[in-house]
Each structure stands twice: as structure tokens, then as C-alpha cells.
């Protein structure tokens, strides 16, 4: 008989115990779990390694794989992990959002807070940074940053060089999200300063807690800043880059936009952004870019209340995590005629009114995007400024550059680059 020393016996006991527990878990998830009858890959129901494989090894592919499975299995409800269902039902999106809470794995940050009361407190702390008047306060900085981008494009025209305009959009949105200025200065090859005189996100959070007996620890400030760094910059920069791509590949739409911008050149040149914000066609272009590019394509988890809920005639047990994908709404042929076509006109006039309730790319309810107004302002000002001033052409950018991957936020294969053909203000 094989003789084992004490340590080996302990190690083997732990490994066997672990394997037994894992095996038991898998059996339970596959044959006894309340979601056992929902369609979906059995490996995804059994273990988180399936999602890991699609997202980490194959690179941000899980949501797209599941959306494909919806078609293959002909079901709008797919079990994506042992306790998580993806529900592609746009009407249910409106039903669940006012009350279901949710969680994300960024432990200490705002959207991760499953406790709706704590979420409400944190949200009230942050709200002052995103009110319309606070966004208006950010406009002078936005104007300065736009002039810097104008300078970069103008110089590129003189030098006949290509510009990675997507990188410049990161720079613009980084400032907007009130993060500190290290990245910005680096891009301009200046030395980062510690005190810029501008209030950063951490300043706002610390000020809001002062004198109220609220202690904001370092870990919380780091988590919140990391979150803002991604959600406050990448989303808008991504949408702006898609706007450049779609406009430069749809000449007729670009001409219409240019006509509108020409009529407001005075306001654009004087940075009268509140007036520019009222331009109908520009707003429709932005809405359509958001719809078709869908900057948040992944899971937006919500937890079903203990009493459960009905999706159509299907009962979903309480405690189940569910997500309704925004891309399912964007691509719905029931809601949008020819959803894969870029048609800003759909958001205008009576047709626009009839789809008003599907302006959902910033989500709805208590967890809806806190930065929506800021992001809309950044997109309006950037597109107005760039297309009023410059004639551009895509450089080294085609449909393959716009293939997307989902790493919690969506990224495209390679940055949008442009050549500057003409500087109308130069
Ligand atoms: C095109 C731009 C953007 C899009 C499409 C977008 C979309 C979204 C979506 C879909 C959510 C999730 C809501 C949910 O779970 O239902 C969200 C949450 C959030 N967004 Fe945005 N976002 C954008 C820009 C921004 C910006 C510029 C900021 C901040 C500077 C920001 C900050 C946040 C925060 C903090 C949350 C969490 C809100 C909460 O849990 O209360 N986002 N966003």
C-alpha cells in the first residue's frame, strides 16, 4: 500500500474536499437550481470558467456569444451563469428599472452598491458634480480643450500628418470627468502639477463629507476614481469616435449636419454651447450614434425581488440576477426600422416622438448614468466644433477598426484616425 507522509495526506484531503465541493456545486447548478430549465450553455450554468474563457481568452466576446445563442436557441431568455439570466425584452427594461437594484464587481464604487439606501446617499454626494449648472461650469474648460484639439488638427493639416482623433477624445473626456491633470499634461508634454486650482472628483467627494461625520476612506476614493476613469472617459470617447466614423462614411448625412452647423457658426466660434445644444439635427446625429454604437453593451445586472417577477408569461424566481442588454433595444426591429442603418432622421419630428421612450443608452431609473448631461455636452460641443471647422477624411480606419469587444465597457479594434483636408477657420 502507498505510504503518504502527514503533509501529503493533508494536501490530498484538501484537494479531494475541494473537488467534492466543486462537483456537488456543479450537480446542484445543473439539476436542482431554480434556473435549471432555462436554455443556455450547460458549461456556463455549471461554472464561471466558461465566461472567463469567452471574455479573457477570446477577448471580450461573452455578450456577443450569448446574443448569437439567442438566435440559435430562438429564446429571448438565456441562462448566462448559474444564477444570471440575460433577458432580451425591451418592454421589461422599462418595467424593472424603477425598482430592481443591482451590483457590479467594482466593490466600493457607486454602481456596485447593492444596498439601495447606501447607493442613494452616495449618489446624492456625487450629484452636485453633474447638475446642469455644474456641467455649465465645466464649459470654459471644455472650450479650452476643444481649442487644443483644434490646434492639433490644424497643425496636422499643415504637416500633412494623420491624427489619432480617438486618443484626443480620451484627453477631452478625461478632463470633463474631473480627474486630475496628469494624463492631460502628459499628452501635451507638460509637467503634471499637483495643484491646478480645479476641483477634482476626490475634492468634491471629500468636501461633501466634511462636517457631516462621514468618513471617506482611501479605498473608497480609489475605487470611485478608477470607476470614473473608465465610465467617464471611455464611453464618451468611444461614442465620439463612432460619430466621426459614421459621419465620414455617410456623406449625405454629413452634408446635412454641415448645413445646420454653418447656420450657427457664430455661436460655435464664440463657444455659445447652450445655443449649439439646441440644434435639432446635431442632437439627432448624437442620439443615432449612441443607438448604433451602443457604448455599454454588456450586462447591467439587477436582482429580482424575493417575490419573483414575470417576463411575459415566464416566472423568474426571486434572487435571480437578470440583465436586459441595451444592444437588444438598439437592434430591435420591432422598435427601429432597419436598425443597422445609420439614420439620424428617425429621431426627428413625429417619428422621433414615437420612439422617445427608447432613448435608453444612459439607462433608466435610480442607477441611470449620472454623467449623462456632461457626456451629451461633450459630444455636442466636440462634433459641432470639429465639423464646423474642419473637412476630414478617414485614415487607416475601416469597418474592421470598428469591430467591438466588451470589457465591461466596449472597445473597438483600432483607434479612429483622420487626415485633415481643410481648416475653414485657418
Ligand atoms: C456616451 C457616454 C455614456 C454612456 C452611453 C453611459 C452609459 C451608462 C450606463 C448604461 C450606465 C449603467 C446604468 C445602469 O446600470 O442601468 C451608466 C452608469 C454610470 N455612468 Fe455613465 N455613460 C456615459 C458617460 C458617463 C460619464 C461622462 C460619466 C461621468 C463622468 C459617467 C458616470 C457613470 C456613473 C458614475 C454610473 C453609475 C451610476 C449609478 O450606479 O448610480 N458615465 N452609464
From TrEMBL:
<keyword id="KW-0408">Iron</keyword>
<dbReference type="InterPro" id="IPR002401">
    <property type="entry name" value="Cyt_P450_E_grp-I"/>
</dbReference>
<keyword id="KW-0479">Metal-binding</keyword>
<keyword id="KW-1133">Transmembrane helix</keyword>
<keyword id="KW-0560">Oxidoreductase</keyword>
<feature type="transmembrane region" description="Helical">
    <location>
        <begin position="6"/>
        <end position="28"/>
    </location>
</feature>
<dbReference type="InterPro" id="IPR036396">
    <property type="entry name" value="Cyt_P450_sf"/>
</dbReference>
<keyword id="KW-0472">Membrane</keyword>
<feature type="binding site" description="axial binding residue">
    <location>
        <position position="369"/>
    </location>
    <ligand>
        <name>heme</name>
    </ligand>
</feature>
<protein>
    <submittedName>
        <fullName>Cytochrome P450</fullName>
    </submittedName>
</protein>
<dbReference type="InterPro" id="IPR001128">
    <property type="entry name" value="Cyt_P450"/>
</dbReference>
<dbReference type="InterPro" id="IPR050121">
    <property type="entry name" value="Cytochrome_P450_monoxygenase"/>
</dbReference>
<keyword id="KW-0503">Monooxygenase</keyword>
<dbReference type="Pfam" id="PF00067">
    <property type="entry name" value="p450"/>
</dbReference>
<feature type="transmembrane region" description="Helical">
    <location>
        <begin position="226"/>
        <end position="248"/>
    </location>
</feature>
<dbReference type="GO" id="GO:0020037">
    <property type="term" value="F:heme binding"/>
</dbReference>
<keyword id="KW-0812">Transmembrane</keyword>
<dbReference type="GO" id="GO:0005506">
    <property type="term" value="F:iron ion binding"/>
</dbReference>
<keyword id="KW-0349">Heme</keyword>
<dbReference type="GO" id="GO:0004497">
    <property type="term" value="F:monooxygenase activity"/>
</dbReference>
<dbReference type="GO" id="GO:0016705">
    <property type="term" value="F:oxidoreductase activity, acting on paired donors, with incorporation or reduction of molecular oxygen"/>
</dbReference>
<comment type="similarity">
    <text>Belongs to the cytochrome P450 family.</text>
</comment>
Amino acid at each position: 500500500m502507498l505510504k503518504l507522509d502527514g503533509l501529503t495526506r493533508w494536501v490530498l484531503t484538501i484537494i479531494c474536499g475541494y473537488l467534492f465541493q466543486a462537483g456537488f456545486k456543479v450537480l446542484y447548478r445543473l439539476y436542482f437550481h431554480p434556473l435549471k430549465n432555462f436554455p443556455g450553455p450547460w458549461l456556463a450554468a455549471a461554472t464561471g470558467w466558461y465566461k472567463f474563457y469567452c471574455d479573457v481568452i477570446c477577448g471580450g466576446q461573452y455578450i456577443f456569444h450569448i446574443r448569437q445563442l439567442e438566435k440559435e436557441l430562438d429564446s429571448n431568455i438565456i441562462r448566462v451563469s448559474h444564477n444570471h439570466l440575460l433577458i432580451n425584452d425591451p418592454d421589461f427594461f422599462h418595467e424593472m428599472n424603477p425598482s430592481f437594484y443591482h451590483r457590479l464587481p467594482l466593490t466600493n464604487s457607486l454602481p456596485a452598491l447593492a444596498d439601495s439606501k447606501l447607493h442613494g446617499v452616495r449618489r446624492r454626494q456625487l450629484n452636485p458634480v453633474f447638475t446642469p449648472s455644474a456641467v455649465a461650469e465645466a464649459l470654459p474648460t471644455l472650450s479650452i480643450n476643444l481649442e487644443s484639439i483644434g490646434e492639433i488638427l490644424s497643425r496636422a493639416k499643415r504637416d500633412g500628418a494623420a491624427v489619432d482623433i480617438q486618443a484626443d477624445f480620451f484627453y477631452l473626456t478625461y478632463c470633463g470627468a474631473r480627474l486630475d491633470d496628469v494624463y492631460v499634461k502628459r499628452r501635451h508634454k507638460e509637467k503634471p502639477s499637483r495643484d491646478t486650482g480645479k476641483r477634482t472628483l476626490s475634492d468634491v467627494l471629500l468636501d461633501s463629507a466634511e462636517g457631516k461625520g462621514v468618513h471617506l476612506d482611501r479605498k473608497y476614493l480609489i475605487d470611485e476614481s478608477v470607476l470614473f476613469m473608465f465610465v467617464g472617459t471611455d464611453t464618451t470617447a468611444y461614442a465620439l469616435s463612432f460619430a466621426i466614423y459614421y459621419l465620414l462614411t455617410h456623406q449625405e448625412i454629413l452634408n446635412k449636419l454641415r448645413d445646420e452647423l454653418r447656420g450657427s457658426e457664430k455661436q460655435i466660434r464664440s463657444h455659445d454651447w447652450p445655443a449649439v445644444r439646441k440644434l435639432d439635427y446635431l442632437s439627432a446625429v448624437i442620439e443615432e450614434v449612441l443607438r448604433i454604437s451602443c457604448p455599454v453593451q454588456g450586462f447591467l445586472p439587477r436582482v429580482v425581488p424575493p417575490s419573483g417577477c414575470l417576463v411575459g408569461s415566464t416566472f423568474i424566481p426571486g434572487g435571480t440576477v437578470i440583465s436586459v442588454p441595451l444592444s437588444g433595444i438598439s437592434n430591435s426591429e420591432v422598435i427601429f426600422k432597419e436598425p443597422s442603418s445609420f439614420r439620424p432622421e428617425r429621431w426627428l419630428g413625429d417619428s422621433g416622438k414615437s420612439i422617445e421612450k427608447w432613448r435608453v443608452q444612459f439607462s433608466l431609473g435610480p442607477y441611470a448614468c449620472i454623467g449623462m448631461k456632461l457626456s451629451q455636452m461633450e459630444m455636442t460641443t466636440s462634433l459641432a466644433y470639429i465639423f464646423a471647422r474642419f473637412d476630414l477624411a478617414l485614415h487607416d480606419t475601416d469597418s474592421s477598426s470598428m469591430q467591438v469587444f466588451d470589457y465591461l465597457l466596449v472597445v473597438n479594434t483600432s483607434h479612429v484616425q483622420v487626415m485633415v483636408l481643410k481648416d475653414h477657420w485657418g
